[in-house]
């Protein structure tokens, strides 16, 4: 069976029961086993083995990430205000140990949220980290704000044994991937899948089924993988969204995943849930 999507997994013990106890968190900072995440160029730093780098506690880091065994893990907020762009860091992801990916995703998403949400959305006052960094509290109106996660559907549409894949303008030459789009307010996952495929490729689908999900920390999305059956294969491509979209046979998908010279397209990277969806489809796991 193909592995779970990159970034998926338990990661650290998040110890939610301690977040509302600032005295306990302060005591953990003095624990001899406590470690602080090292940041490099706005992203969690990794060593030559792809492991996250941790150092001694410096000052009073505002983010309590949880426990790695008996060791409390904390993080400061990296310098800079711009969220990290996934396209600029795929090389970093290719070096990251898969077991470290859940903690990388949690730390980066949380840091990105703090950098983007420093003001109260109720009264506009500057807010302060709260609950070990898992919320922000407004000292003026008392509103408490929690990290947001944006749901994104990413889906395979199938017709007569072939898959619909598309390419966006920023993709490397030859790459095709699953279609995707944000879930809109008042919309179910199934409805979002059908709407996005209709908007981007002009086809109607039925029998939408959930496959798997992936946290995506650029800046903080939840990718919801799905499969749908297309009612026909006649495409009307929205060129504002896609450069191209095509139907690919199982043999073409297998060749792309193998990455050999016979491949008719370049498959998504291992860090992308789209690759997991293709691997599961090839293995008949829908």
Automatic annotation (TrEMBL):
One of its GO terms (biological process) is NADP+ catabolic process. GO terms for molecular function: metal ion binding; NADH pyrophosphatase activity. Pfam families: NUDIX, Zn_ribbon_NUD. Its EC number is 3.6.1.22. GO terms for cellular component: cytosol. It catalyses: a 5'-end NAD(+)-phospho-ribonucleoside in mRNA + H2O = a 5'-end phospho-adenosine-phospho-ribonucleoside in mRNA + beta-nicotinamide D-ribonucleotide + 2 H(+). Residues 147-270 form the Nudix hydrolase domain. Keywords: Hydrolase, Magnesium, Metal-binding, NAD. The keyword Methyltransferase does not apply. It comes from the Bacteria. Its cofactor is Mg(2+); Zn(2+). Belongs to the Nudix hydrolase family. NudC subfamily. This is NAD(+) diphosphatase. It comes from Sphingomonas cremea. The lineage of its organism: Bacteria, Pseudomonadati, Pseudomonadota, Alphaproteobacteria, Sphingomonadales.
């Amino acid at each position: 069976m193909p592995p779970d999507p990159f970034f998926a997994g338990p990661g650290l013990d998040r110890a939610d029961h301690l977040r509302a106890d600032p005295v306990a968190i302060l005591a953990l900072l003095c624990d001899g086993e406590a470690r602080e995440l090292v940041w490099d160029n706005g992203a969690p730093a990794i060593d030559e083995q792809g492991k996250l780098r941790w150092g001694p506690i410096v000052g009073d880091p505002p983010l309590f990430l949880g426990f790695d065994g008996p060791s409390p893990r904390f993080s400061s907020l990296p310098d800079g205000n711009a969220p990290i762009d996934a396209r600029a860091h795929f090389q970093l992801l290719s070096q990251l140990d898969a077991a470290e990916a859940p903690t990388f995703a949690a730390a980066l998403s949380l840091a990105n949220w703090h950098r983007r949400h420093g003001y109260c959305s109720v009264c506009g006052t500057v807010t302060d980290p709260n609950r070990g960094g898992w919320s922000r509290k407004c000292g003026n109106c008392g509103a408490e704000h929690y990290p947001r996660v944006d749901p994104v559907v990413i889906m395979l549409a199938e017709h007569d044994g072939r898959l619909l894949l598309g390419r966006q303008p920023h993709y490397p030459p030859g790459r095709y991937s699953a279609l995707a789009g944000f879930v809109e307010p008042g919309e179910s996952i199934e409805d979002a899948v059908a709407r996005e495929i209709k908007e981007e490729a002009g086809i109607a689908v039925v029998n939408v089924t959930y496959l798997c999900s992936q946290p995506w920390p650029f800046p903080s999305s939840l990718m919801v993988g799905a499969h749908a059956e297309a009612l026909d294969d006649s495409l009307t491509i929205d060129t504002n969204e896609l450069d191209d979209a095509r139907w690919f046979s199982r043999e073409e998908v297998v060749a792309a995943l193998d990455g050999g010279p016979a491949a008719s397209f370049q498959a998504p990277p291992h860090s992308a849930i789209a690759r997991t969806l293709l691997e599961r489809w090839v293995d008949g796991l829908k």
